[in-house]
Amino acid sequence: MSAPTERVTIKDVAAAAGVSKGAVSLAFNHKPGVSEATRERIFAVARELGWAPNSSARSLSRQSVDAIGLAICRPARLLGLEPFYMEFVSGIESVLAERSCSLLLRLVGSLEEEIHLQQRWWRERQVGGSVLVDFHQDDPRLDPLGGIGLPAVAVGHPSLTGGLPSVWTDDATAVAEAVRYLVALGHRRIARVGGPAGLGHSAIRAAAFERTMADLGLDGGLHLETGFSGEEGARATRSLLLASERPTAIVYDNDIMAVAGLGVAAEMGVAVPDELSLLAWDDSQLCRLTHPTLSAMSHDVHGFGAQVARMLFDVIAGQDVPSRPVTTPSLVPRASTAPPPPAG
Predict the structure, then answer these.
(1) DSSP state of 125
(2) Would you say 315 and 154 are in contact if contact means Cβ atoms under 8 Å apart?
(3) Max alpha carbon distance in the chain (Å)?
């Protein structure tokens, strides 16, 4: 097992690698004076001992930051179609442009892959800090990335982010508003097409959905889990509409699944909103381009990304940054929601 980072010094790394302390410093600052083989040996020893330069964050606060990191565990094809991340990244970039800083964006296949990637980025000084997204319950990234001193901002509810400075949306309140709106229209059979259960924000939304339905005297409704893609959103919608007691309203966890659901309703001859109401999440431009236009829980995703980037620069500068929520998503009713058809 690697020794705790705070007990290991540059002298320990130098001794284990068979070099001088100066060589370790040259290697981590990417300066000439050591061979590539020696540099890699020093990095390997530092990784094994769990060591990173203690002065990294402080020195970065005195220097310009050339890049920040963002790793996303999503398939490339899905990410290219996902409006949320496109808007979120554009918000980050708007802040980076002011500081002549770049975004190092990488798609990974697993959280374990992300851990190794973030460790290498920080060890090799490729980034001044990172944005961490898509938190899970008992997220495996927290201990290893916290142990190397990586400046980071978490995008997720504080209950998921292990004490990291975090920015989040109040998903529970937004879900409650969505359900109460549909019930006020007269809906009693409401379904939710959500993301993977392992994702923290999906679990928060699912719990809020069930709790609000129960508070209103209704059963828990139907939950279907997906991977956020349009294909899975379509499949989930088709399954719901083929049920013996199909819902009269469906809430989706993102816009692309809601658009796919609208297409399935048309394919099956189910009129929206006369027979079925649909409610999207995020309110990207897609919601205004469909026919009928999609009601949605709307929030400023671009501003969300910008706020995350500003907070990360404060963390890199060594400031004590409190976690904070962004504005709670709010309902924007459009043509896809209406009272349910009369029973009978």
Answers:
(1) T
(2) no
(3) 84
Intervals of CATH 1.10.260.40 along the chain: 1-51
pLDDT value at residue 111: 95
DSSP state of 149: T
Q: CATH number of 1-51: 3.90.79.20, 1.10.10.10, 3.30.70.2390, 1.10.260.40?
A: 1.10.260.40
Half-sphere exposure of 8 (CA within 13 A, CB side): 20
What the block records as the tokens of 165 is: 């400075």
Q: What's the predicted TM-score (pTM) here?
A: 0.81
Residue with tokens 């959500």: 194
Place of tokens 């919601």: 287
Rounded CA gap, 340 and 132, in Å?
A: 41
Q: What is the pLDDT of residue 31?
A: 67
pLDDT greater than 80 at residue 343: no
Place of tokens 């919608």: 237
Q: What digits encode the pLDDT tens for the residues 114-138?
A: 999 999 999 888 999 999 999 998 9
Measured CA to CA, the distance from residue 90 to residue 103 in angstroms comes to 10
Q: Which CATH class is domain 171-297?
A: alpha beta
